[in-house]
UniProtKB/TrEMBL annotation, chains A, B:
Binding residues for substrate: 183, 209, 230-233
Annotated EC: 3.5.1.4
Organism in which the protein naturally occurs: Pisolithus tinctorius Marx 270
GO MF, one example: amidase activity
Enzyme active site: 133, 209, 233
Name used for this protein in its record: amidase
Record-annotated Amidase domain positions: 77-538
Transmembrane helix as UniProt keyword: no
Keyword annotations: Hydrolase
Catalytic function, reaction form: a monocarboxylic acid amide + H2O = a monocarboxylate + NH4(+)
InterPro entries, sorted: Amidase_CS, Amidase_dom, AS_sf
Length: 573, 573
């Protein structure tokens, strides 16, 4: 055990962790030990990797599917490389929960035999390893979801729909990843497996709630992961770990077969979303999901096939109008984020695109509303599950539950009033977006909003406290994609002036800024599109990344820029 | 006043009715008086009509748009004819609420001037009169919605989105129509304006809750009406009045700007839907709505343009597989309805289509669930509004409210459990539909379900008691269209054997059967399609109506068969 100091030792937790340890034992040759004092573990992860492994790990999922299809590498070669990296990721960041490497290797051998026999792949993800967030059901594996009460009581009898479709497409499910207690957290910590660290700087959070995916993929331990997002849970870990992550519109991607508290909540609905090392992998994931016609298997899903040509830019105007949201009016982002937005503004304008400022629409009011929708019963269901497991609230659970602590459950009448408020908020925002046509040179409303993902880079553990840059788009049900734009380096930082805080929340976050705290943290941005226009959003991201590819001088970004600069276009490998 | 015996005389009701009377006065030359003892008023409605009026009133909305566009008739000609018929409809069935004939005539004159000046129409509904159900906001008019408490307190400051789009397309709004107290009723009766009768037989209900539309359109007083449906409220009055009516999938058609109880309810959501005298008019309505891109004005709406070519049959297999639902397992329909289903089975098979039996999926359980979703608070909001107006529950309000009388409001936890149950019900039904592929010769799941609209033809007032044939499809969010197939004639009826009742509800409805009760009542059927496939549903209806057009020998159906047999195909006029 390498990370005992991060892990509570409840009896059931000890058993879960021992079980995980047992599953890792056969792969002990690939284990990595890094001193606790070392914050950035990225340089240490290559131990035990062959040259072939290194080549494989530099591929995104799109490229992996291609090299396996072309017979350059076998599915076993590919999976082996990712298992090695996953073991190293676990040893350094504590990102894994359930492990099924043996079954996965067996499946890889089957896929290789199938290729050899028939000359054909079984589907577009033939031989691509895919990791799954813990609360998404994988047949035969536990779904403890960060609750001690659920550990060993939630072995899945069947796969979630997203997992089924992945398997049918040839993907190999080999590992499940950490999520926090309650899932309603933008960090990743629970009393079953403990805390997940950011591999770029272990004093910082990997983000959450899909933080296990964030750390694992950043370490090279997975090319493509499946997360979920109801307030930022795909986007924040993607941002904090320097990855691409997509939260689509509600009901576009399969969402059945998940465990979590508040099943049946209509008032605010989460989304399954992909996390990856390239934008084109996000599109690949969506395309695989929608080609399976999931609306014939999950009633709420919309019969809206993936428009590949739109995702590739068909119909996009040559000159884009992009709105930039610098400051949501509640918490001004930390200086590196503002600097990144300015860089993109310049690059977009230099390339002939139009940039206007986005006037934020009351993010505080939006937050006050969404947190009520999250906690209609005052948090009772969370409290009950935590108590049932004989555990305690981890700090980020406490932080969110404090928003409703002691409040009685809402009545049906109160719930309906909140829904009415939500609809009015959405209608207002839609009109606001439409009205940008009066401010653009093109006379069109803006094509997308470029904005921060959070007011900070990955913050120190247990300190995340403003969701308004991500939860706002859940409240509005707008698709949003996160992409890496650089890496913060403390020694190279030129101090900037900070504005005086406007409120207690901003005061807290302003005080969080210190040039040294965030050393090596990824810098990421978010692009927000029109509802149900996921394809167009990715096409716009492609344009933006063409205008300014992630800097090659930034170490971590090499993984995202092998030939395609990570943005979405046809593979040229 | 012609219908005093049907109308309560609360002070506010008296004032509303007097106001309506005042608005009708300038049109007194066209008023119709029919003895109370006369049940079928249809033969008496032509009084005061010119030959031109008669030609105009035989047109459906599609044809009206065409004759106005071509200059055959002016918008004023058209509107005048419909106002005459609307006055007669009011005098005989009590179907109107708010009247704005003068403003409408002014608008018609404007439209005619516009045509004269520019040679162009303002939109696809240029000069087509459209009637609006009372609870849908029309700027400047009251929205009393069947509640005395709301009378004079709900003058709309702006149009509902559906009304805005209609006006932009050139439609003329000239009248609002009756809906029942609570809106949650399949009949139409309230303490503001009283009861609406079925023009084919005034001892029978016109259906509800869009019963004002049903009676008005059946009388020739409107070519196209806008209703709403959360349990059958478009389809039941369409059926009972021999009309076409469409309840689409949730979020396909504009639904904002409506007044009603339980605003903000997510658990079960209603739909705006058109009522008309031809299937092609339903398609015209949808096409006008979706060409306006309403998703840019109402956030919940889906960006799903109207696929005109699909509605016209593009992509439809030559041989259809249709499932017929004869009996929902709770209440066997009355003999004329079973006979109609058998006729369609024969005709479909004779035309080379496949027909299989639809095994019903627990309509009782579905009803027990949906009625809980309607009444999450035990009905408190209805009770409060009724009490606030100093009025009483009309019998059908009492009937529905009895389902939850005295029950405490559900907690958030209970609401979520109901939602989970709803989703499981939907998933089960989707799998059930998919599984029909094992029973069809084509190997495809069935294309649509043909079924009753209700277990009875339009029943005597205050006796509607089984919603399971319509509310079932609201619970599943499947699109459903109602179409007329004939007219019941008591003297021509050959008695049929009735099965022994299986439960108290069926016992009640079996006892309701008596050949003489339903004389002249329309016979209608319902066709149910796949979610969000409104276009395909109408295309299938077109095939079915080609196989068996409404009998020309049936008096009322003449209105639906002028050249196109009412089904949806390109105009050939």
């Amino acid at each position: 055990m390498t990370l005992n100091h991060l892990v509570p030792r409840l009896a059931v937790a000890a058993r879960k962790q021992d079980d995980r340890e047992t599953k890792l034992k056969p792969f002990r040759n690939w284990r990595v030990h890094v001193d606790h004092g070392v914050l950035n573990v990225m340089p240490f992860l290559a131990k035990g990797l062959s040259d072939r492994d290194r080549v494989i790990l530099r591929c995104d999922a799109t490229a992996l599917a291609e090299v396996v299809r072309k017979g350059v590498y076998t599915a076993v070669d590919v999976l082996t490389a990712f298992i090695k990296a996953a073991v190293a990721a676990q040893d350094t960041t504590n990102c894994l929960t359930e492990i099924c490497f043996e079954d996965a290797l067996e499946r890889a051998r089957e896929l290789d035999e199938h290729m050899e026999k028939t000359g054909n792949v079984v589907g577009p993800l033939h031989g691509v390893p895919v990791s799954i967030k813990d609360h998404i059901k994988v047949k035969g594996l536990d779904t403890s979801t960060g609750y001690t009460a659920w550990a060993y009581n939630t072995v899945a009898e069947e796969d979630a729909l997203v997992v089924k479709i992945l398997r049918d497409a040839g993907a190999i499910i080999y590992v499940k990843t950490q999520n926090p207690q309650t899932l309603l957290s933008l960090e990743t910590n629970n009393n079953v497996f403990g805390r997940t660290c950011n591999p770029f700087n272990r004093s910082l959070t990997a983000g959450g709630s899909s933080g296990g995916e964030g750390a694992l993929i950043a370490c090279g331990g997975s090319p493509l992961g499946v997360g979920t997002d109801i307030g930022g849970s795909v986007r924040v870990p993607a941002a904090h770990c320097g990855l691409y992550g997509l939260k689509g519109s509600v009901a576009r991607l399969p969402h059945s077969g998940l465990l979590g508290s508040y099943d049946g909540l209509d008032a605010i609905i989460g989304c399954v979303g992909p996390m990856a090392t390239s934008a084109r992998d996000l599109a690949l994931f969506c395309s695989v999901m929608l080609e399976a016609e999931p609306w014939l298997r999950e009633p709420p899903l919309l019969e809206m096939p993936w428009k590949e040509n739109v995702a590739r830019g068909h119909g996009l105007p040559e000159r884009l109008s992009i709105a930039i949201l610098y400051d949501d009016g509640v918490v001004r982002p930390h200086p590196p984020i503002l600097q990144a937005l300015d860089m993109y503004k310049q690059a977009l304008e230099n390339a002939g695109h139009e940039v206007i400022k986005w006037d934020p629409l009351d993010h505080q009011k939006g937050w006050d509303l969404i947190v009520k929708l999250y906690l209609l019963d005052g948090g009772a269901e969370y409290h009950e599950t935590i108590q049932a497991g004989g555990e305690w609230e981890v700090p980020q659970s406490k932080w969110i539950l404090d928003h409703a602590r002691g409040r009685r459950p809402y009545t049906p009448h109160e719930i309906l009033r909140l829904n009415v408020e939500r609809e009015a908020f959405r209608a207002n925002a839609l009109a606001h977006w439409n009205a940008t046509k009066h401010r653009t040179a093109t006379g069109r409303p803006v094509d997308a909003i470029l904005c921060p993902v959070a007011p900070t880079l990955a913050p120190p553990h247990d300190s995340t406290s403003w969701w308004g840059y991500t939860s706002h788009w859940n409240l509005l049900d707008l698709p949003a994609v996160v992409f890496p734009v650089g890496q913060y380096s403390a020694p190279m930082w030129v101090p900037a002036d900070l504005s005086p805080p406007r409120n207690a929340m901003e005061d807290f976050i302003t005080r969080q800024w210190s040039p040294n705290t965030y050393d090596h943290a990824p810098i990421s941005l978010q692009l927000v599109g029109r509802r149900l226009n996921e394809e167009r959003l990715l096409a716009i991201l492609g344009v933006i990344e063409n205008v300014m590819p992630p800097a090659d001088s930034v170490p971590f970004s090499r993984r995202f820029s092998h030939g395609t600069n990570g943005h979405y276009k046809a593979t040229d490998g």
